User: Which sequence fits this backbone?
């Protein structure tokens, strides 16, 4: 980027090596493989990008700031759509966040992300189950796919209803 903030210039971001970046080394190889495959299928089905990252450290930054800067650094989401999301886990600081691009904020709100973290992710982390916690956090992809399918169905229904109303109005006027 042409312009970097002082904060971004100080942070040593991990390399984007795939759909799952386990810098903290807390995930099993099987979980990484499963999540990588699921994330690829999700992107193929929706064009939305979802990356999971575990961090060795937040380097003294708030997870919100680190996540925002990391998303910009990595360029998650399609150009012009800004439809990427990051599940960020920093075990050392006991911090978790779902960072969402503007293109997904209508679907994946802060309230939904917070609910996923508090109700699904953190309880598993407290039990020492990082694989299960990260998998639970990644399930948001399934919820998003279901919501998109519902919106598409609703849009088709509204279009059909509008056509039916027009046909009825035309036949009533004959």
Assistant:
């Amino acid at each position: 980027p042409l312009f970097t903030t002082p904060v971004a210039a100080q942070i040593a971001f991990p390399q984007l090596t795939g759909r799952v970046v386990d810098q903290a080394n807390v995930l099993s190889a099987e979980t990484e493989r499963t999540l990588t495959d699921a994330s690829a299928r999700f992107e193929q089905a929706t064009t939305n990008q979802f990356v999971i990252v575990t961090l060795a450290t937040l380097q003294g930054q708030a997870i919100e700031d680190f996540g925002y800067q990391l998303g910009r650094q990595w360029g998650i989401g399609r150009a012009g759509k800004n439809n990427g999301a990051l599940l960020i886990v920093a075990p050392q600081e006991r911090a978790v966040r779902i960072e969402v691009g503007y293109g997904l904020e209508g679907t994946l709100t802060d309230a939904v992300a917070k609910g996923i973290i508090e109700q699904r992710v953190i309880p598993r982390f407290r039990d020492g189950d990082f694989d299960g916690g990260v998998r639970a956090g990644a399930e948001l992809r399934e919820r998003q796919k279901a919501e998109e399918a519902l919106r598409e169905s609703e849009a088709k229904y509204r279009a059909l209803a509008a056509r039916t109303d027009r046909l009825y109005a035309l036949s009533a006027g004959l």
Q: What stands out?
A: The radius of gyration is 20 Å.
